[in-house]
Amino acid sequence: MTANLLDYDLEGLTVFCERLGEKRYRAVQLFRWIHQKGASSFDAMSDLAKSLREKLKVCAQVSAPPILSQHISADGTIKWLLDVGAGNAVETVFIPEEDRGTLCISSQAGCAMGCRFCSTGHQGFSRNLTTGEIVGQLWFAEHFLRKHFQRDERVISNVVLMGMGEPLQNYVQLLPALRVMLDDHGYGLSRRRVTVSTSGVVPKMDQLAQDCPVALAVSLHAPSDALRDELVPLNKKYGIAELLDACNRYLAYAPRDFITFEYCMLAGVNDQAEHAHQLVRLVRHYANGSGVWCKFNLIAFNPFPQSGLIRSAPEQIQAFARILTDAGIVTTIRKTRGDDIDAACGQLAGEVKDRTHIAERIARQRTFMFKPVSVSNQSVKET
Ligand code: SAH
Ligand code: SF4
Asked: 370 in a domain, yes or no?
């Protein structure tokens, strides 16, 4: 069987090379060719011994999920839909800003958490992505964008696990992927610039703190258990008090001295002044008054028909933010980006699709619609 080298962090690749009878430092060379130069052809790896290249050709490949479609928004946001097989597709979104380039990546095909306001949740769970499929999103995007912008240096400065899926429900595959992102021989991103977003899988938050404490965002969405139970079903297992305890424990290891709470603004559901005041009390009075060091990120709900929910009006979001900031809590309102291409994180083309629809769409795109804009996996293979 051919191994996909995108499945390995440096330690894994070292074991792989040793099994081929190669010295450890060969793994570093190989790793750098793949992640720093974007190479997928072993012939291109000119400083590897010919004998190793021949061995690799037989037993290995560097393979990211194929791109089904690419949409470029007027504001520069780029969204790719990737084929992960058996009728499943996941999305990856690049968000350029003046001082950074953020890649939002997916961790699962679908999601089992079933949050009410999330189109991925409405699709149900299909499967966990492999490490190679998670890393492959960054590998493809980084090297595609370098070509696209004709830059030799890094284009993606930040990675957020805010695409499809609950990353902490795919911990085993996620961990090596995070290590590839942080590795100086890989993408060299600092722990502050890689953010895992979770709906609150408490035991895995503790594990992440030990194994690889990157920045953490927690999807809170409600100030009380009664409301959060309705919006985020996982709350019935790990309620708010337990979740905030876990946040406080995480903070001892986190690269930043705060947790980001994400809060999706749903008209008439969780966006009233009373909810904001409740939130202030919650995070202030928590842990016998010592509170939780946190920042709020308010997200305008990205509507989709089956949700039966409505996005809060901008004035409502502003007013809500003011209550939090007046109480001294740093609060940002997430800019909507790529609206014209439905590129909000957590959305797949802004519509709920059951898997049959995705399969149909994949078939259609393969046959008629999609002609990549001079992009395909092939175009980045020979760098
Ligand atoms: N499963 C993880 C990460 C993926 S979702 C989590 O839930 O945190 C990333 C973010 O997008 C989460 O904060 C999620 O609540 C939010 N989100 C999901 N659907 C949304 C929608 N329709 N509109 C706005 N934000 C949404
Ligand atoms: Fe899953 Fe996150 Fe969507 Fe909830 S919000 S269903 S955890 S992807």
From this structure: no
Which residues touch 168 (CB under 8 Å, ≥6 apart)? 174, 196, 198, 201, 204, 205, 208
Give the rounded percent of residues in the chain with a pLDDT score beyond 70. Answer: 88
Residue 368 lies in a domain: no
CA of 301 from ligand 2 middle (Å) equals: 13
Q: pLDDT, tens digit, for every residue of 164-216? A: 999 999 999 999 999 999 999 999 999 999 999 999 999 999 999 999 999 99
**Together in a domain, 8 and 96:** no
Mention every residue, 6+ apart, whose C-beta is less than 8 A from residue 357. Answer: none
Buried/exposed 327-359: b ≥16 CB within 10 Å, e otherwise:
eebebebbeebbbebbbbbbbbbeebbebeebe
Q: Is 93 in the pocket of ligand 2 (CB under 6 A)?
A: no
129 and 207 inside one domain: yes
What ligand has the least distance to the C-alpha of 117? 1
Number of domains in the chain: 2
Question: Is the CB of 199 inside a 6 Å radius of any atom of ligand 2?
Answer: yes
Please tell me whether residues 103 and 12 are part of one structural domain: no
CATH number at residue 57: 1.10.150.530
Helix (H) or strand (E) holding 78: strand 78-83
Annotate 94-146 with DSSP letters as a single string. EEEETTEEEEE---EEE-SS--TT-HHHHH-EEEEPPHHHHHHHHHHHHHHHH
Domain that holds residue 8: 3-61
